[in-house]
Specification:
Number of strands: 9
Oligomer: single chain
Strand content: 25-35%
CATH class: Alpha Beta
Shape: globular
Number of domains: 1
CATH superfamily: Gcn5-related N-acetyltransferase (GNAT)
CATH topology: Aminopeptidase
Distance between the termini: 23 Å
Number of helices: 5
Largest sheet: 9 strands, mixed
Structural class: alpha+beta
Order of helices and strands: EEHHEEEHEHEEHE
Length: 199
Amino acid sequence: MTSLQPDVTLRWVTEFDAATSASVVALVDCAAAGDRGTLGYASSMTAGQAQDFIAGLQRRVAAGDAHALYGQVGGMPAMSGVMALTAMPNCRHRAELSKGVIRPEFRGLRYLQMGLREMVRRAERLGVEQFVLDVREGSRAQALWKRLGFRTYGILDDYARVGGVRYNGHFMVQEVASLRARLMAGDATPVRRQGCLHA
């Protein structure tokens, strides 16, 4: 557990107790409600979807296939994100970032950088040298990740369907060392926005 300021705490979750599970689901629901389903859910998760989501995440974390970051500000759920590793020997230098969310009231306050720095530190400890992610074309998330130095290496047509509308998806990449340099240089300050900042 890392205490970054008197009221800010980030921790890597190893066991999803009821409180942590509910908080993580609420954060994902925040993005579903405010950002038109860009985290894979067009609306708040049903009880069954939430149970399956947490159970799947717990399995991956327990197996060492994923690392789940959770943050609080003043004791309130504020941010979460997942770094997934690959089991393929030739690709162990790469990790995928997903389900990253910051609650609206904490946007633009450098909590995003705090979370990403923690991701970078964990990645470096694990020998991960490259981050990849995928995001809906034209979304605020795409603009945010581009601002943070991620670049598109591929585009998938019909990546997502929400409300009968088809969206393309951008697959993005950045070297961990490059992201570290941006974060340490203060070059990644997020802009204040309505809704959640997310991956």
